[in-house]
Structures are given as C-alpha cells and as structure tokens.
Automatic annotation (TrEMBL):
InterPro entries: CenT-Element_Derived. GO terms for cellular component: nucleus. It comes from the Eukaryota. GO terms for molecular function: DNA binding. This is TIGD1 protein. It comes from Crocuta crocuta.
C-alpha cells in the first residue's frame, strides 16, 4: 500500500465523499471606519507635531491551536456537517512595531488569563 494524493482522491470519489466548508462567525468589513481613522490620525499627528517614527501600531491576535479545519468530508447521504462546539482554547499575542518599520517589539504571550477580555 502506498498512500498518495491520487489514491486519496480516487478513494473519496469511489465512496461518494464530497468536501464541504464549515461556516464560522462572519467578520464585518469596516473599510469606511478605517479610512476615517486614518484621516483622524493624520490630523492629530499634524496638530501635535508627531513624527512618523514616534507612531506605533499594535495588533492583538488570537492563536487557536485546537481549532477544527474549515473544510471536512462527508458522505453524499449526509446533508449537513454534524454540529460540534468549537474549541476556544488559545493564546493571545500582541504584535507591535513602529510605523516606519525600523523597530519591532517582541510579542508578549498570554495563555490562560484571569480575565480573558482584558485587552478589549
């Protein structure tokens, strides 16, 4: 037996499996709010005489290492993906760098915080 991509595809086709996307929470696009903030930041920098090298950008990011994949395979008889509670266990990382890109802060890591919504 030699497992290969072709063998897997033929197995799925022969057993009438098909690939479906698991739907998660939708993210709203805030393009107009981002443009408004950029204009407000430029006005603030001009009025307070801040230089670009004095501006930092920080981004909080969740890293879920136990998260289920977005795609899964089900048989043709099944109409939907069986529901399961998503794993929310993860890490919180904070990425921070200067706007001009010459300095990056080492990202701090929070595993199980006492108050998980502390960054909000």
């Amino acid at each position: 037996f030699k497992a290969s991509r072709g063998w897997t595809e033929n197995f799925k086709r022969g057993r009438i499996f098909h690939s479906v996307v698991r739907h998660g929470e939708a993210v709203s696009s805030e393009a107009k709010a981002a443009e408004a903030f950029a204009m407000e930041l430029q006005k603030l920098m001009a009025s307070e005489c801040y230089l670009l090298k004095q501006v930092f950008n920080c981004v909080e990011m969740e890293l879920f290492w136990k998260k289920m994949p977005k795609r899964t395979h089900i048989t043709e008889e099944e109409k939907a993906v069986p529901s399961c509670k998503p794993m929310k266990d993860g890490l919180t990382l904070l990425f921070c760098a200067k706007a001009i890109g010459d300095f990056k802060v080492k990202p701090p890591l929070v595993y199980h915080s006492k108050y998980p919504r502390a960054f909000k």
